[in-house]
Each structure stands twice: as structure tokens, then as C-alpha cells.
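Collaborator request, handled under Task 6.
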Amino acid sequence: MGNILFLIGLTIIIGPQKTLLFFARRQKAKGTAAFFLGLLLILMRWPLIGFCVELYGIVILFGDFLGTIAGFARNAPVVGPYIGLLLDRVPGLGGRRNAELPV
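C-alpha cells returned to the collaborator:
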């Protein structure tokens, strides 16, 4: 149910045409196929396998936004510094990439 509501919410936010264009891009084909295959597996009562396949699809589709999400979480009040410490320990997940550059 949440998966379908996610698609409906995405369609409402960016519009139906841009939603179709997002999922139909050639470089996102593997993520789109995994996402919808996972959704289908969940509806066919294979929830654990469907969830894993769908999670893979979401990471492929929305992986470009992980850096933005990490930056936003770093600026959250109260817990932001702690989240920043955790993100700095995980390589490639939001560490400050240009921190050692002199510019």
C-alpha cells in the first residue's frame, strides 16, 4: 500500500508527464524494472524478496539524491551533528569529498 501511495505522491508532486519521463529514462531502466518487479512480488505475497528487490531499485533510481539527503540530515537541529559524525565514518556516503582541497 505504501508503495502505491509513494507513486501517487510522486505523481502529484512532479506531475504525471515528468513521473513517466523519470521512470522511462534509459539510464534508470534497471532501477525502474527492479522497483516494479519488487512491487509485483509484494503484491504476489512474496514480501521479503519483493522488499529487497524494490529497495535495490530505489537505490538505483534515487541514488543521486543520497548526497543531498545526507547534507540535509547534517543540518537538522539537535541530532544533525551526530548524524554528521556517522556519515563521516561511512566511506562514500556523505563524507565531505572536497574537505582536503585548499580552495
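The cover message to the collaborator said: "Residues 47-62 form the longest helix (16 residues). Helices lie at 2-14, 16-24, 29-43, 47-62, 66-74, 80-89. Please let us know whether this matches your experimental observations."
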